[in-house]
Amino acid sequence: MVDFRIRNVHRRKCALICFSVAVLITYRNFGNLKGGQKISRKVGLSANSSQFTLNGEPFRILGGSIHYFRVPRAYWRDRLMKMKACGINTLTTSVPWSLHQPQRDVFNFHMELDLEAYINLAAELGLWVILRLGPYISSELDLGGLPSWLLQDDDMKLRTTYHGFTEAVEVFWNKLIPKIVPLQFRKGGPIIAVQVENDYGSFAMDDAYMPFIKEALQSRGISELLLTSDNHNTLKLGGVEGAMKSLKLQKLNQKDIQDLNRIQPNRPTMVMDYWTGWYDVWGDLHHVLPPEDMVSTIRQMLRRGMSINLYMFHGGSSFGFISGGLAEPSYKALVPSYDYDAPLSEAGEYTQKYHLLRDLFSQFNSEGFPDMPLLQNKEAYESAITYQHLSLWDALSLTEGVSLNPLKSRMPVNMEKLPLKNKNGQSHGYTLYETKITSGGLLTSGDNVKDRALVFVNKNYIGLFKRKNWELPVPDGKGQRTLSLLVENCGRVNQGKLLDEQRKGLVGDILLNNIPLRGFTIYSLEMKPSFIYDLYQAPWKTLPENPRYPSFFMGQLFVYSYPSDTFVKLPGWEKGVVFVNGVNLGRYWSIGPQQTLYLPGPLLNRGINQIIVFEEQEGDFKVNFDDTADLGLAVDIQ
């Protein structure tokens, strides 16, 4: 997970002061104290009639989703204050297992992953909270938010009661849920409901699974209202007894509402996911939902007395390699921007949707809303010229597990099975497979490259393998030569029934003239922060006129005043990854639609900032910075 450290002494002091004040006033807006007496909270969110009640009083959920892990921690307060100022009363967020437990024996609840701090901040600002704990959350994350090390088990059956999966869920929840229990409504906290799994009706592989998940939550102390959320055509398959059903939709259909009320009579009608926009994939267009269409649908729902949650209210960014992929109708990887065409843009800017929503919600609220917070400044900094160069081959000595003992294997090994990170395998990034050949001929991949491989002979590029069956001619040559395949994990699919098949790297044999290649040396290029920091000490060379690819390129961005948000733009570059001060901003790719990468101000220093670009095939040697995002040519969602 990205570590958004604030590298400015002044900001550190401000953050400390803000935290101290927050501790003193947490929950003050929740009526815990009144006239020196604590208000009893014996009854939480109840769904026992056609209308929700909270502590016995009528209540309508006007919710919005903001994922804490997609927003720099320095901006949490800003984004939630903008939510509050729009008229939202309930924050919803998913909890990504893969980020909180990146290895079996490693748990992370710090920095951007400090869930308790995020919930407490929501409480301070007067927002109720609905948690979507999963364990599967989708959220367009790699493997739907499930950790990749689960796939080391060849028999793994995700989202079922298979013992290897349920045991892993229980280990994680034994760490997670004790942090959440004290923050529930009836214990004085802001959490009013918890969602059980997510969209299980579209998966529905095990009738015992949802009851297991429900019992696992309740046995650990989750006592607030439980929800499930499904599409209209999978409602019957996705629920569990004792949890209220809710809908996912973008267009309001009377029949869908009637079906829900028939399946679940005398309960409030809740749309847990009203999709305010959509996600984007590489090689496609940027999807948008016209503001008037969104507001018209939400107005209809409010007039019907329905409760709603806007997914997303603010999407943020899928920094690093955490984006997922789509399996159907063919595999496509998601872009790092999670702007989602939401009411708040990727960089937290107000959109037309935001203003229309605020006007609409004001008609259902007589108390008025807080003032809208001021926007952060955006800056178009001077371009950074990359002046140093390091080829991939010269960087291999820094890769994990290689510097002392390169991994040798007779056969190819997929990412998840690599003996790395205390035998937790490789989660993301690239893997380089090298072997020796003594002839040319026809190289065939079968369906064994996941997801994309650059192929080299003696470090000279000869072609590209994609998924499915591909063939590539290998030129003849004298003596023994090195065949290299740089395989990229472009993102495990985040939904559908193929989750168990999301192993990456080389997942089977590569054939040369119908003979399987053997005798591999394997290098892991997960490109974690420790690797990028080590790169600074590597033997960089002055940039030549015609550098060899793939390569790392280094430049510097100078910030002369207080750092502002900006957007990285790379015209003339083909495909790769951008790192700023050691932080992975995500992938770029000339095929679009996304043309800029969001660079939040808190990632920048006043003065010199190090920019590293990993480019696979062709570079322009200049990194541009713009003050506006460019997410590509837009198309209306159908």
Explain what you see.
This protein is an alpha+beta fold. The chain folds into 3 domains: 9-362, Glycosidases (TIM Barrel), CATH 3.20.20; 384-390 and 529-636, Jelly Rolls (Sandwich), CATH 2.60.120; 401-525, Galactose-binding domain-like (Jelly Rolls, Sandwich). It is 19% helix and 27% strand. It contains 12 helices and 39 strands. Strands 6-7-8-9-10-11-12-14 form an 8-stranded parallel barrel. Helix 9 (291-303) runs parallel beside helix 10. The radius of gyration is 25 Å and the shape is globular. The model is unreliable at 5-38 (pLDDT under 50).
Secondary structure: elements and pairs:
Blueprint: H1 9-25, E1 33-34, E2 37-38, E3 45-46, E4 53-54, E5 57-58, E6 62-66, H2 76-86, E7 90-94, H3 97-100, H4 115-124, E8 128-132, H5 163-180, E9 191-195, H6 209-219, E10 225-231, H7 235-238, E11 244-249, H8 254-263, E12 270-275, E13 286-288, H9 291-303, E14 307-314, E15 325-326, E16 332-333, H10 352-362, E17 384-385, E18 388-391, H11 392-395, E19 407-409, E20 430-437, E21 441-444, E22 449-450, E23 452-457, E24 460-465, E25 471-474, E26 481-488, E27 505-506, E28 511-512, E29 515-516, E30 520-525, H12 529-535, E31 541-542, E32 551-559, E33 566-569, E34 575-580, E35 583-589, E36 596-599, E37 607-615, E38 622-626, E39 634-636
Parallel strand pairs: 6-7, 6-14, 7-8, 8-9, 9-10, 10-11, 11-12, 12-14, 13-39
Antiparallel strand pairs: 1-2, 3-4, 4-5, 15-16, 17-38, 18-31, 18-32, 19-30, 20-26, 20-30, 21-25, 21-28, 22-27, 23-24, 23-26, 28-29, 32-37, 33-36, 33-38, 34-35, 34-37
